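can u do me a favor
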């Protein structure tokens, strides 16, 4: 299977009839994939598909497993390298055929498919990192605007405390131009802080749940 935002391109050999089946599932979402699997493979226990570990692999692998099929997730770079030196035009159809051939030949460089809880923890960690990077960028922007407009420097607490944020509000209101006040956007920093706290709490809860599950297995 070759997964894209608009469609999923499939290429498989029916082990009962020996027929080669090709086509597309559109739009590419969980509901349409589930319906397609139900129409074609209900009651079958010999269904296996290969897909690349790119964006979208998670829901595809989950729906395949829910339908009783086996999902094989290929490592993208290694899968591409196995195309060899001959470079044909790269299309969804050739990609799906390439994946089928690698799986059939037992040469697909597979990735580990983590349990759902691990996937959720990974997603939270990625989100926390992205929010932290954005928070740092906004903090740097604020200090740059204050310096550029000659406003007084904030105290040692900076923007990490309620006192520091209150000081920022006061400085912005009295020492920055109207555009400078818009650039500072203190509400954005507050929203990021709130979101970071919420994600941090979710991470702690997930970590406790994961730890407890590991102890009982």
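np, heres the sequence
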């Amino acid at each position: 299977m070759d997964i894209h935002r608009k469609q999923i391109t499939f290429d498989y050999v029916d082990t009962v009839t020996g027929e080669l089946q090709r086509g597309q599932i559109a739009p590419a979402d969980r509901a349409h994939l589930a319906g397609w699997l139900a129409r074609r493979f209900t009651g079958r226990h010999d269904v296996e598909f290969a897909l690349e570990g790119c964006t979208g692999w998670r829901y595809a692998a989950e729906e395949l497993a829910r339908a009783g099929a086996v999902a094989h997730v290929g490592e993208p770079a290694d899968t591409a390298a196995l195309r060899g030196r001959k470079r044909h035009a790269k299309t969804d159809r050739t990609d799906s055929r390439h994946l089928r051939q690698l799986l059939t030949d037992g040469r697909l460089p597979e990735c580990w498919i983590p349990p759902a809880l691990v996937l959720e923890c990974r997603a939270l960690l990625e989100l926390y990192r992205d929010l932290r990077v954005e928070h740092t960028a906004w903090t740097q922007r604020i200090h740059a605007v204050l310096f550029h407009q000659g406003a007084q420097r904030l105290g040692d607490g900076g923007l990490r405390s309620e006192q520091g944020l209150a000081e920022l509000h006061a400085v912005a209101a009295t020492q920055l131009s109207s555009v400078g006040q818009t650039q500072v956007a203190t509400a954005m920093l507050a929203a990021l802080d709130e979101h970071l706290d919420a994600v941090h709490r979710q991470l702690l809860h997930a970590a406790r749940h994961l730890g407890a599950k590991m102890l009982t297995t």
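Residues 123 and 203 are 10 Å apart (CA to CA). hope that helps!!
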